[in-house]
Amino acid sequence: MAVRPDVDSGHAVEAYGVTRYFGEVAALRGLDLTIPYGQVTALVGPNGAGKTTLLLVLATLLAPDSGQVRVAGYDLATHADRARGALGWMPDTFGVYDQLTVDEYLAFFADAYRVPREERSRRIRALLSLVRLEEYLGRPVHVLSRGQKQRLGVARALVHRPRVLMLDEPASGLDPRSRVELRDLLRSLAADGVAVLVSSHILSELEEIADRVVLVDRGGVVGVHDMTELTAAGPSGRTRWRVRAQDPAALAAALAGRPGVGEISDLPGGAEVGPLTEDQAADLLAALVAGNVRVTGFAPAAGALEATYLAMTEDG
Ligand SMILES: Nc1ncnc2c1ncn2[C@@H]1O[C@H](COP(=O)(O)OP(=O)(O)OP(=O)(O)O)[C@@H](O)[C@H]1O
Q: By its UniProt entry, which CDD domains does this protein fall under (predicted)?
């Protein structure tokens, strides 16, 4: 759907014909995009596709050469300051002021965003609790681990209660528990109506948090999908499947004796087969069970997002 540059359609982000060159390199080539409120949108694409450039433009940190962008209804060409007040931004690498304490650090940004003084310390405590850093109140930023600094970055991006939150590779540097917590946090912000836009290369993780995926390639949007509409079989309709069984030798024998299972490779405790359609996979599972192979696992080898992403990058 083409975006109308002259009409505020109530989207969190509207971009129309956005172009940005770095010398001869076209990082964005007439990109069109809309992002709704109340959802987590994943920005996915190969290295150099233009994701970071796009996020920098949306965050008002880089001016496009041409095109129109509206964030939270504000045209960035004329009302960038208002847009900044409505958007939260977490870059992939960000500096922290090591000599400040954790709460001074957040207070600095709260002041920059003109959070009322009387509300400041309450909000900082709430944010520190949200990102599980409350015990670091009063401690210097330099004692935080990398993952903790990343979480402080999330708190910083939320200090002015933005309606649009953009995060570039937020999960890098986070341990598994922190990733789950970040996922829950982003989901709950979306449930509160915030538009969350997140770029990452960790597709399995995006798959668990995103409502929508925007595929970016060569400076343009090449696909927009609801996560519910993606299947593990991807656009080709076929994928590889992982099979596990209580007795891997019995499984191997049953697979070897059955035509049409595709290429078989060994896995610890089982095998990977295919590519197969969902129907073929269901037939195989039924045949294994009928042949008394005690199957303990049977699942697509790659997630739906990964399958879609790989199909996109193969086409090029
Ligand atoms: N400051 C810059 N100077 C020159 N070229 C740049 C600059 N920033 C980006 N580019 C180029 O613009 C293109 C898009 O880069 P961008 O960083 O936006 O891609 P990306 O999708 O974020 O990639 P990655 O997944 O590797 O982070 C690339 O060809 C890159 O080399």
A: ABC_DR_subfamily_A
